[in-house]
Amino acid sequence: MNSNKVKVNKIQLYQTNLDKIPIYLTRKLTMNSETIPLSAVIILSILSFFGAIKVLNVTYRLIGFFYRHFIRGNQNLYARYAGTQQAATWAVITGGTDGIGLQFAKDLACQGFSICILARNETKIISKLAEIKDVASKAGHVIQTAYEVVDFSKQYHIEDYAAIVQRLSSLDVGFLICNAGAAAVGDFTNLTNEQVERTLVADALQYVYLIKAMLPRLLLRESQRSGLLIVGSGLGSFPCCGWLALSIVKSLQSFLGQGLNYELRHKVDVTSFECGEVVTQTNNNPPNFFRCMPDVATKAALRDMGKDAVTCGTWRQEFRMWSRKTFMTINIQNKVFYDLSRDMFENKK
Ligand SMILES: NC(=O)c1ccc[n+]([C@@H]2O[C@H](COP(=O)([O-])OP(=O)(O)OC[C@H]3O[C@@H](n4cnc5c(N)ncnc54)[C@H](OP(=O)(O)O)[C@@H]3O)[C@@H](O)[C@H]2O)c1
């Protein structure tokens, strides 16, 4: 009986106190605003302003991430870049005989592009072009093929590239993919002079000179827009110790792509593909959560072609790149990658 009475009284007490909370809070706030110094109010306002900007920035990027990977679908690039004439529209792909380049060639052939490959080994080029033609015909397209045997590590002058482009003058090139590369890896001090030169010539000069030589052709096409895809690497987004030669040429490629994306926006779509790990002959490791097969990587890159200045490809690779940039300082990155490269390259010796 007694305990019930006590309970009732307690509830009544809470209810009466609840009524008083707003009055109490108002008093407290008024008192505080009188006591908070002006400097603290200014600092708090500045912090809230920058906090709000950061929140907006993160929200914008998150929306972009979800849109890119889960809403934006495949594109018909042939419809976008094909000429208005009946003649074939060509995709020229450097290093189209293997790995990522070969997969791009197959994907574009399946959309209707005729394929021209620039690589070193003629027998291999001919056999891969037959394979590409076969894949295209299964997708319902009769395509033409062409090739140039060229070793980019021996093309030192811009005139060499002008000559290559001249030899392709009969083709209506609507899409150029600069992809060929085999940069030397390992401690920069231990690379031979020949390795450094080959990397710089094949991976840096090729991209700059071939694009420079091909641009007038892409710009002068009467019909629609043209496409230019630059296959770089995520390792070009920071000075990657242990892979420094690769890292510097990839950063050059990325800058070139991003700059041209804006300069040429009226006529040519330019996208820089900051590729993550892909299983190929140069990265001969089994696939895992972050390391994908070439068809997965190229599908994601072609989805973003002309839509974004830079793409990392799949959502996993974009997430991996974002986490590295967000959670690792440059010193930690240096240590992790340098130690990793030492393990990999010292073990291989
Ligand atoms: N695989 C990855 O994990 C990865 C990651 C990031 C970025 N990437 C980039 O993706 C691109 C393609 O790499 P990949 O892994 O697909 O390589 P890949 O399987 O070794 O294929 C390289 C292609 O480039 C050609 N090539 C190499 N050196 C050449 C030269 N000096 N002159 C002419 N052609 C040459 C090769 O053809 P021939 O040997 O027949 O001449 C081959 O068709 C490279 O730029 C690479 O840096 C790859």
UniProtKB/TrEMBL annotation:
Q: Which residues cross the membrane?
A: 36-56
Q: Which domain of life is it from?
A: Eukaryota
- What keywords are annotated for this sequence in UniProt? Membrane, Oxidoreductase, Transmembrane, Transmembrane helix
User: Is Kinase given among the entry's keywords?
Assistant: no
One Pfam family hit: adh_short
GO molecular function annotations of the record: oxidoreductase activity
Instruction: Note the InterPro entries from the entry.
Output: NAD(P)-bd_dom_sf, SDR_fam, VLCFA-Steroid_DH
Recorded hits in PANTHER family, A to Z, give: RH59310P
Which family, according to UniProt?
Answer: Belongs to the short-chain dehydrogenases/reductases (SDR) family.
> What protein am I looking at?
Uncharacterized protein
- Organism per entry: Halteria grandinella
